[in-house]
UniProtKB/TrEMBL annotation:
This is Late embryogenesis abundant protein LEA-2 subgroup domain-containing protein. GO terms for cellular component: membrane. One of its GO terms (biological process) is defense response to other organism. SUPFAM superfamilies: LEA14-like. It is found in: Membrane. The lineage of its organism: Eukaryota, Viridiplantae, Streptophyta, Embryophyta, Tracheophyta. PANTHER family: EXPRESSED PROTEIN, LATE EMBRYOGENESIS ABUNDANT (LEA) HYDROXYPROLINE-RICH GLYCOPROTEIN FAMILY. The keyword Transmembrane helix applies. InterPro entries: LEA_2, NDR1-like.
Length: 209
C-alpha cells in the first residue's frame, strides 16, 4: 500500500465508484396490462371500369330500342290503318232476255247478281248502301242498289241483288250482241260503289269506295 507521502501515489487517479445499472420507469410494464389487439384485413384490388365498353353497350342498347320502337309503330300503322274493302261480282246470272225486232231494236234484260264484299281490315265494316253499275261495251245499262250489312273483321259477305233493264237501245252493238248470245257469254262491265264506316272500338271511320 502506498503511503501518503509517497510520490507514486500522486500520479495514480483516484479509484472510480462501482457501476450502477437502472431501468426507466416508463419501460416497466404492468403485469396485468394486456397488449392492444390488431385486426388484419386482406387487401382487394380495385377494378376500374372500362368507359369505352360502357359507351359501346349504351349505344347498342339505344339502337336496339329505336329499332324495336320503329317495328312496333310500323306494325300498329299496318294493322290499324283503314283500307278499302275488296268488292267483286262473284256471280252474274241472266234470268230473262227479250229482244225487240227492228226498226226499234231494243232488249229487256233481267240479271241476278251476287256481290262479294271482303273486309281487309282488322276491325268491322258497316256499310249503309251498295250500288253496282252494269255496262255493256263501254255503255252503262243500269244501276242496282242493295241495303247495308255488317261485315266482321277480315270477313267476307255476299249480297244478292236483281237488275231489271227494259228497252235498252242496242242498234249500234247489235252485231256484237248477237255474237255474244250465240257463244252463250255476255261480257258485262260492273262498277261497284259502297258507302259505310269502319268501326274500331269506339271510333268510326267513314269509307266510300
Amino acid at each position: 500500500m502506498a503511503k501518503t507521502g509517497d510520490p507514486a501515489a500522486l500520479l495514480l487517479p483516484p479509484p472510480s465508484p462501482p457501476p450502477c445499472y437502472g431501468v426507466p420507469a416508463s419501460q416497466i410494464g404492468d403485469p396485468y396490462h394486456e397488449p392492444p389487439a390488431y385486426v388484419l384485413l386482406p387487401a382487394y384490388p380495385v377494378r376500374r371500369r372500362r368507359r369505352g365498353a360502357c359507351r359501346c353497350c349504351g349505344s347498342f342498347l339505344s339502337a336496339s330500342s329505336l329499332f324495336i320502337s320503329s317495328i312496333l309503330i310500323a306494325s300498329a300503322i299496318f294493322f290499324l290503318w283503314p283500307s278499302d274493302p275488296d268488292i267483286q261480282v262473284a256471280r252474274l246470272r241472266l234470268d230473262r232476255l227479250r229482244v225487240s225486232p227492228p226498226p226499234n231494236a231494243a232488249i229487256d234484260v233481267s240479271l241476278g247478281l251476287q256481290i262479294r264484299v271482303r273486309n281487309q281490315d282488322f276491325f268491322a265494316l258497316d256499310y249503309r248502301s251498295l250500288a253496282v253499275s252494269i255496262g255493256y261495251r263501254g255503255r252503262q245499262l243500269g244501276i242496282v242498289t242493295s241495303d247495308g250489312e255488317h261485315v266482321r273483321a277480315r270477313g267476307v259477305s255476299y249480297v244478292d241483288a236483281e237488275l231489271e233493264l227494259d228497252g235498252i237501245q242496242v242498234l249500234n252493238d247489235a252485231i256484237y250482241l248477237i255474237e255474244d248470245l250465240a257463244r252463250g257469254f255476255l261480257p258485262l262491265d260492273t262498277v261497284t260503289e259502297v258507302k259505310g264506316k269502319l268501326r274500331l272500338f269506339f271510333f268510326e271511320v267513314p269509307v266510300q269506295v
